[in-house]
Specification:
Layout (H helix, E strand, L loop, with lengths): L1 H46 L9 E3 L3 E4 L5 E4 L2 H14 L8 E2 L3 E5 L4 E4 L2 H9 L22 E3 L3 E4 L5 E4 L2 H14 L8 E2 L3 E5 L4 E4 L2 H12 L2
Antiparallel strand pairs: 1-5, 2-3, 2-4, 5-6, 7-11, 8-9, 8-10, 11-12
Length: about 230
């Protein structure tokens, strides 16, 4: 009887040690997986439309991220996006399908156009219009570090429409909704709304810069690509 107890105790101890080692190994692998998962998700999100400092378009936040299990997280910037993606991956270590953005989304072109993108087909067309080729190099690793905004638009700003009307918007959310409503009401108009110059941007160092023309805005975007 005593031998059986000793044998059981030894087996239990061995199992516990193996379980502990296995968990440590699993956690190490999961940490690696998490970093890669965040990298690849952000890379693919930006690559699909040539969005971000290395592309031709600025993503207008907030945006909604849709995960494999159907859950959705609304994020206000790339930092929140990284945190949300990491947290979800930690809770779903076996997941392999990377999250995507929920459409519609809004982007701002280098010319100051504000574009509402309804689906993946429209996003593909935007990408084809972009001359930058950074994403063609396939640099997925470390891409989360490339998702820091070079500048932020200072609100309020005025949006000019193709019919020569304009409207002032107070924040990013109002900008998004204004562009969506306009697009729904004008589905056949090829010209796009645009930011009215001049407007102000806040740079990464906190300084405020006035953008007076399309050329100045393009120059700012090009300088971001080198950061």
């Amino acid at each position: 009887m005593m031998k059986n107890r000793l044998r059981f105790s030894c087996l239990f101890a061995i199992a516990a040690v193996l379980s502990f080692v296995s968990c440590d190994k699993f956690n190490d692998q999961t940490e690696d997986d998490i970093f890669n998962f965040v990298d690849e998700t952000l890379y693919e999100v930006q690559d699909r439309g040539n969005i971000g400092q290395d592309g031709c378009y600025e993503l207008v936040f907030p945006v909604s991220i849709v995960f494999e299990d159907g859950s959705i997280a609304e994020v206000n910037d790339y930092s929140e996006a990284k945190t949300a993606i990491r947290a979800w991956k930690e809770e779903n270590p076996e997941a392999t399908e990377r999250p995507t953005l929920a459409f519609p989304i809004e982007v701002i072109s280098e010319e100051g156009e504000v574009i509402s993108v309804a689906d993946t087909e429209e996003l593909r067309e935007l990408r084809e219009d972009c001359p930058r080729n950074y994403f063609d190099r396939g640099r997925r690793r470390g891409h989360r570090h490339r998702c820091n905004k070079c500048f932020s638009i200072v609100f309020p700003v005025t949006i000019s429409f193709p019919d020569d009307t304009s409207v002032e918007v107070a924040d990013r959310q109002e900008l998004k909704m204004t562009i969506r409503v306009w697009k729904q009401a004008n589905p056949d108009v090829e010209e796009r709304p645009s930011l009215t110059f001049p407007f102000n941007v806040e740079l990464k160092d906190g300084t405020i810069q006035t953008i007076n023309s399309q050329e100045e805005f393009q120059a700012l975007r090009e300088s971001c690509a080198g950061d």
